[in-house]
Amino acid sequence: MNTKRSFGILAMLLAGLFCALPTQAAVLRDSLHSDILGVNKYYSVYLPPSFKQDAQAHFPILYLLHGLTDNDRAWTEKGQMERVLDELIGCGEIPPMVVIMPNAGERDTRNIQSGYFNMPGWRYEDFFFTELLPAVEAKYRAGGSKEQRAVAGLSMGGGGSVGYAMAHPDLFAACYAMSAWLDSERHDNAEPTDKMALLMNAVNDHNPMKLLEKADDRQLTAIRSVRWYIDCGDDDFLLEQNVQLMLQMRKSKVAHQLRVRDGSHNWEYWHNALRLCLPFVSRAMGR
Amino acid sequence: MNTKRSFGILAMLLAGLFCALPTQAAVLRDSLHSDILGVNKYYSVYLPPSFKQDAQAHFPILYLLHGLTDNDRAWTEKGQMERVLDELIGCGEIPPMVVIMPNAGERDTRNIQSGYFNMPGWRYEDFFFTELLPAVEAKYRAGGSKEQRAVAGLSMGGGGSVGYAMAHPDLFAACYAMSAWLDSERHDNAEPTDKMALLMNAVNDHNPMKLLEKADDRQLTAIRSVRWYIDCGDDDFLLEQNVQLMLQMRKSKVAHQLRVRDGSHNWEYWHNALRLCLPFVSRAMGR
Amino acid sequence: MNTKRSFGILAMLLAGLFCALPTQAAVLRDSLHSDILGVNKYYSVYLPPSFKQDAQAHFPILYLLHGLTDNDRAWTEKGQMERVLDELIGCGEIPPMVVIMPNAGERDTRNIQSGYFNMPGWRYEDFFFTELLPAVEAKYRAGGSKEQRAVAGLSMGGGGSVGYAMAHPDLFAACYAMSAWLDSERHDNAEPTDKMALLMNAVNDHNPMKLLEKADDRQLTAIRSVRWYIDCGDDDFLLEQNVQLMLQMRKSKVAHQLRVRDGSHNWEYWHNALRLCLPFVSRAMGR
Amino acid sequence: MNTKRSFGILAMLLAGLFCALPTQAAVLRDSLHSDILGVNKYYSVYLPPSFKQDAQAHFPILYLLHGLTDNDRAWTEKGQMERVLDELIGCGEIPPMVVIMPNAGERDTRNIQSGYFNMPGWRYEDFFFTELLPAVEAKYRAGGSKEQRAVAGLSMGGGGSVGYAMAHPDLFAACYAMSAWLDSERHDNAEPTDKMALLMNAVNDHNPMKLLEKADDRQLTAIRSVRWYIDCGDDDFLLEQNVQLMLQMRKSKVAHQLRVRDGSHNWEYWHNALRLCLPFVSRAMGR
Question: Would you call D233 helix, strand, or coil by DSSP?
């Protein structure tokens, strides 16, 4: 028995199991200090294989937003996002891209503070556009223009992605909303410590159906320059809101894709959503 | 501000996030003592929602086998199998079923011992059919006949599932092989401590292409009573072996399904394979 | 040159091209005299391969309804329905079934008379349930009970299928509505010669949203015994109506599947819908 | 009753049924005289909506080849190709493109003459590259370079597309072969009137497996510059040949996509293949 030989075959098998895709894609966690929020904010990053291979290359960028009660690690730890990225880049269905997963809700059991919009004591939207976005696009050689930038997200992050692209249509080529949380009750006398009430008010303030209804022609023209995609499961408790957005977009003549697939408000749905999201935003960014 | 009210809404949102599918499906780990192997063997179990709801119900059973270097937890921890089961049972695409994930390779860094076949010092196939199978089918009110039993697996477990269904066609209604490891070099003078060489010899001994070639009419008739499905990625290093099995099945007139999808030897492929596997084995068991 | 040999190969190639699926499925057109309508009515029939092979076999039945301006030949001539049936039966995804395509609108350029409901001068629903259904189920050894009967259709036929299953929930195991026409304006003073106005009134009378809203508990219990599937394209001009049906079904706690796929009100959508429809109704009929 | 009103609604319904996609895509048949073949040759053309709308626009081009016993009308009359083009262009999954469907086998009951390669009395490949290609690319403002040109086909046309892209890798960005006929027996003493034998010899001469085996490094480098896709059904009688091509491409290190989907040698398979083919060749042409 040639032991070396059997170890050689073992190596091949293990390589097959662990390294079948000879990718050098990287998922890492980084952070920056936010003067606006007064804290250090983490974010997760997906870097495609070619990022290391070609130090001059510049990439399209996708901001991929998590939901309530989660943080920047959710898309990798629960959503296995890197598996879909690796496969679709590997077979050429999408070009290499950088994905930034911000943290809009580091979970804190005593006092949940989260949300993508500005609210009392939490100017997250300001942080996102004036601190996070320029920093990561410079550091990771990505984005830099509307044509090279897209936003997507799930649940609270789905609402965040719609809100961001509605308010900044000049910054995003595409928006893909998964199971989006688009509206909420108001709590007009919410106390400053009632973080959940403040969040709900912020969501209510950014209701995209109302925003579209009030938009003037100049705003609508800008909003129509974004490629929109609404994706929500037929068993999702937020389906009504997503259907309302579609109905209002029809009225406001904002072209969009809508998909209602089988499923509920869960990671099986969102993991699969990436297979639709990534080619869609890639085509929009490639124009 | 009515704090109770906002907490009520928070509860609904959290319920939406965490409990969207009001399933009581359970994934648990169980074990039994094996006289044959001389050790306690773990296995993982998926129980459908109706298992608890109806204490009299009896279920079809699927044995779902892991690959080399993994153990019984791989399908849940890396494969997120319960997410697909929950969804497909939830929408009615498959009936409730019990899934047993055996452990054919508790990883041991000093001396890997694994494999689904009998080999010197490791009579796993005997353990599987005479100890594990009767115990779990009694305990979990499942299986009990060919018409209510199927086997599937990935890589080494794909080869195991084909080997089991070839050797025991009277016991399985269907076999679904994912990225199956079906052949290996021989090491005729392998030392008893060279576990990897022993495993490769066992795989070689159970090469299903050779088995089909030598099979007599009676054996072929039995083998044709199983529903076969071969599923392997176009970038998989084991694709050649799987294609060889298809070619031999054509020669031996053993009807089968073959799919070559985009992908490699990885969990993204196998997770998606479950969406094909579960309806296929369900239809075969339902006949 | 051996001419016979090359002709032999030619034969194989032609066989490959024309007869690759060695099916004996048949699509034929039949008719029966209707006392109710006072005319001879055509219908098209799909018979699975096993219909001829086994003269004792009994089959599940699907009624597949065409849209406005079409007739019973639309599903074969424009929808290529037999291609999907042949494939899904061939690979075992669905059991053999008989499909009846009735004619609710033999096109007549002078005076279009069509529609699945009773209306002045056109008691089509009566014809369907008391003349057509018993005749074809006897003649083609199919259906015979709720558990073996389903209805599906497109556009006007989608509305027809929903209307039939709402009014006769004891007769259908499943209903699959494609791009369904579910509501229309009323024309209360429509003249007897204004066939289109009569049709719109009939559609309005059978609005399933209103029907559900008014339904009592007994009716709702019966309606819930049907498996419902709503399928409508995101660019369809009837999407709003289909979304209204979903919203009302949620309110009335009628479980259903909803899919909004890419597409419009056209045959590419409906041909693909069959790939979802046939497994769905098969599972419902198989229970 | 307002008759005008009901006619207005009828118009809307009919518009919905017939013109749901407000496309101006056109499918037409054109012809050119071939000095090489000594006959007038027909071909079919798909022109995207923007062809008429923008008289200056230039388009990528796809050559889509039919199979034995068919002609240039097969892809529209049996394959409904325009339905898939309209939908994928409509939703932005592919850019507008011109599709040319040549005629390599006008059926003639007395004496079938067909095939994409040069053979005695039938210099079709010469006709294709020196007469057809320059003429249609000038007339329909399309193609003009490797980066804007792709070839695809089914059965005999699948073999033709592989043969063309192997022999002219500098002319095609991508090749998508469906159920390709890649090899045949030889008939060395075939008489000039035995057209089928001549065709089989031509197919045998262009066997891409042998071509790859013999190719030198310069040729392989050129061949690797084409994006290859092999797509063949698991019940296809030509699957073995397609698997052989994959195996040889692995040996020759020619990157490719392979898919084995459910199905046989028929139009259901090829119609669905377009949904994979069109995005694939579009991405390759867009680079």
Answer: coil
